[in-house]
Every structure is written in structure tokens, then in C-alpha cells.
Q: What sequence folds into this?
């Protein structure tokens, strides 16, 4: 082990390109979070309709399904850095569109389609940015420091997830379009930082976009029970157990707060995630990683139920804090397992599949939660989701014994 590696988790920051990448990721995540909380509050304030909130998640999810067939091959065939630059540019355009819609008064309770259309545009950009960014990061640090890099990346990403909703809520008093202007600036700065990345990842010979190449990521995951189990468990838990889409309802109708309350609720899970990610970056897991992941998903479900039963914002925030910490541990384990065991020439396609099955399950989960809440109410929907996450974890422990028995990140 090198001396640099022995210095601890912070040693990864000696690499300029890693610093530039995580800074860029921080900014475009911050911009997305500011924008997302602003959109959610505007939509629910105008419509008072849980289904309208669910449509936000559906619109973010829609482009990811067809695009998942091309985003992976694109990340393996083309310069991942260029893909990130273009993606962040499109996100900035989306913020500009939303700003103009608000300034022109084009958003009304009966005319929400321009907002949903813009969400689809930004969702398409994210579909390209996520697999390209995650595949690129693998080449920015040595393999032995990669788990630490994943933890730090997630920690910084979650810091943006904390600051984004809170900042979005605080910016509202200055004007409804201000959060979108700030998001626009974040995306532009992310483009500048991404341009400064010098690393050019090694690539295999140019691949042709044949059907076998497109579906190769799915085949690879299906052939690896450890990766398949980790990804599908997260898919089911987030799809059924996510309560993010319903936070405006809890903030406005149950806890009777304003945008600041929504900002706090959106931030608490990320605060817990930051704490867990920093701990993992400095003190990586040494063993029992499989069982640890399952236990964390169970804790996630229990805290979701606790949040749903809360009648005051303080205990609700505490449950979200613990929920975020447990979720981050499972995220670090899953991402490390996937990226360490996937060859470089396959990482783009595998991460594209990983994005659609886990990352976009957040958006589809928001649609599911909003739709179910429309019929049975917000609280029963959250309770159902928490119970589903617990059941899924117990079931997956039996379906994927190899994952349950996994001791270390590296095989």
C-alpha cells in the first residue's frame, strides 16, 4: 500500500481531476435540488393535488426508460467528460425555461404542462449525466482508493442534497423565479469545472451500437447475483418506500409549515447521509458488507413508518435523519460492489442500467406515492411503503444468499 493511501480517506483529494469532478457534481446536484423543491412547492401550492405531485416524478422518469438503451453505450463509446458538459448545459437551459415561464405568468393551475415538459427535458439530461459521471469517476483514482472516493463523492453529493432544498425554500421570499436563476448559475459553473478535467479514460476499441451491445449491461448484471440482488433490492425499496414526493403534503397540511418546513424535511435525510458517508470515507467497512446492507434497508423501512406516524415536524425530521444515514450505507456498498467488479469497457452500460433501475426508481416511486396518496391518503401511503421495504429486505436475504454472505467489497 502506498504512503498516499495510508494517509486515509482524504488522500483521494490529491487528484485534481477527482476534485474537479466532485465539485462539478456538487454544483449540478445542488442546482437540481434547488429546482426540484421549487417545482414541487409551486405545483402543490397551485393545485393542492397529490396526483399533480406524482406527475413530477413520472415526468422525470419517462425519458430514462428509452434513453437507458443508448446512454450506457454512449458513455462507453464517447468522451464521458463531453457527455457531462452537454448534460449540464441542457440542465441550465431547463432552468432558463422555468424562469421565463414564471416571469411571463404562463404557469397556472390549469396550465401545468410547460412545467412537466421541462422536467422531461432535464430528466433526459440526467439520464446521460449519471452513467457517464459514475463511469468517469472510476478512472480518476487508483482502484485501492475507489471505495473511499465513492464515499466522499456521495458525501459531497448529499451535502448538495441538504443545501439544495433548504436554499430553495429560503430563496422563495425573494421571488418565485429566484431559485431557478440560482440553479442556472450552478449548472453553468458545473460545466466550467467539468471542462477542467484532464483525464481521458482508457477505452476499448470503438463499439458499434448493435442490439447486443445495447443490452450487454442487462446481461452482465443478470449474470452476477451479487450485483443483481443489490440493485433490485434498492429498486423495490425506493419504488415502494419513498416518501419524498409527499413531503409538500406533510409540510403544508400535516405539520402546517411553509416552504421552510419543506426545505427542512427534504434536507434531513441528506444530513444523515452526509454523516454516514463521511464516516465510511474515513472508516471503510471491513467485513459483513452483505448483511450490513440488508440491515440498513430494514432500518430505512422502520424509519419510513416512524415518519408516517409523526404528527410534529421534529420527530419526523429525526426519523428522516436516521433514514438517510441507513440509506447512504447501503448506497456506498452497492455502488462499490458494482463499479469494482465491472470492467472499464462495460461500466458505462452497466451504470446506465444501474441508473434506470435505482436512480430513476426515485422518480417512479414519487409517481407511485402521489397516485396512491390520491386514493388512500398520504399517511397510509408512507406506512405501506415502509412496510414494503422491510418485507423486501427479508425476502431478498433468502433469494440472494451470495449477497447476504458477502464479507468484503472486493471478492
A:
Amino acid at each position: 500500500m502506498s504512503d498516499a493511501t495510508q494517509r486515509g480517506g482524504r488522500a483521494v483529494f490529491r487528484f485534481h481531476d477527482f476534485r474537479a469532478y466532485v465539485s462539478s457534481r456538487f454544483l449540478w446536484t445542488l442546482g437540481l435540488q434547488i429546482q426540484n423543491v421549487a417545482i414541487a412547492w409551486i405545483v402543490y401550492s397551485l393545485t393542492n393535488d397529490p396526483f399533480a405531485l406524482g406527475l413530477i416524478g413520472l415526468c422525470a422518469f419517462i425519458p430514462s426508460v428509452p434513453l437507458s438503451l443508448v446512454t450506457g453505450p454512449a458513455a462507453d463509446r464517447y468522451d464521458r467528460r463531453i457527455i457531462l458538459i452537454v448534460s449540464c448545459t441542457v440542465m441550465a437551459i431547463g432552468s432558463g425555461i422555468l424562469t421565463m415561464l414564471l416571469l411571463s405568468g404562463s404557469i397556472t393551475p390549469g396550465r401545468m404542462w410547460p412545467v412537466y415538459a421541462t422536467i422531461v427535458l432535464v430528466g433526459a439530461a440526467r439520464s446521460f449525466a449519471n452513467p457517464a459521471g459514475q463511469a468517469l469517476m472510476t478512472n480518476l483514482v487508483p482502484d485501492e482508493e475507489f471505495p473511499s472516493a465513492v464515499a466522499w463523492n456521495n458525501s459531497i453529493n448529499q451535502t448538495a442534497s441538504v443545501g439544495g432544498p433548504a436554499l430553495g425554500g429560503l430563496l422563495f421570499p425573494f421571488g418565485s423565479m429566484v431559485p431557478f436563476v440560482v440553479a442556472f448559475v450552478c449548472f453553468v459553473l458545473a460545466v466550467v469545472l467539468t471542462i477542467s478535467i484532464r483525464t481521458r479514460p482508457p477505452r476499448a476499441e470503438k463499439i458499434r451500437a448493435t442490439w447486443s451491445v445495447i443490452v450487454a449491461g442487462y446481461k452482465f448484471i443478470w449474470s452476477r447475483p451479487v450485483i443483481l440482488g443489490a440493485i433490485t433490492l434498492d429498486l423495490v425499496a425506493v419504488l415502494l418506500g419513498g416518501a419524498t414526493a409527499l413531503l409538500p403534503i406533510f409540510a403544508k397540511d400535516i405539520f402546517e409549515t411553509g416552504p421552510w418546513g419543506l426545505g427542512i424535511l427534504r434536507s434531513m435525510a441528506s444530513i444523515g447521509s452526509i454523516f454516514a458517508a463521511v464516516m465510511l470515507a474515513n472508516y471503510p467497512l471491513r467485513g459483513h458488507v452483505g448483511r450490513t446492507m440488508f440491515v440498513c434497508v430494514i432500518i430505512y423501512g422502520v424509519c419510513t413508518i416512524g415518519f408516517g406516524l409523526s404528527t410534529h415536524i421534529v420527530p419526523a425530521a429525526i426519523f428522516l435523519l436516521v433514514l438517510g444515514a441507513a440509506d447512504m450505507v447501503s448506497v456506498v456498498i452497492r455502488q462499490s460492489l458494482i463499479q469494482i467488479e465491472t470492467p472499464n469497457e462495460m461500466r458505462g452500460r452497466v451504470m446506465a442500467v444501474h441508473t434506470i433501475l435505482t436512480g430513476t426508481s426515485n422518480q417512479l416511486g414519487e409517481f407511485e406515492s402521489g397516485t396512491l396518496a390520491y386514493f388512500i391518503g398520504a399517511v397510509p401511503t408512507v406506512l405501506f411503503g415502509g412496510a414494503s421495504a422491510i418485507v423486501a429486505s427479508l425476502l431478498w436475504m433468502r433469494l440472494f444468499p451470495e449477497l447476504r454472505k458477502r464479507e468484503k467489497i472486493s471478492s
Observations:
- The first helix runs from residue 3 to 6.
- The chain has a mean pLDDT of 81.
- Residues 3-404 form a domain with the Growth Hormone; Chain: A; fold (CATH 1.20.1250.20).
- The radius of gyration is 20 Å.
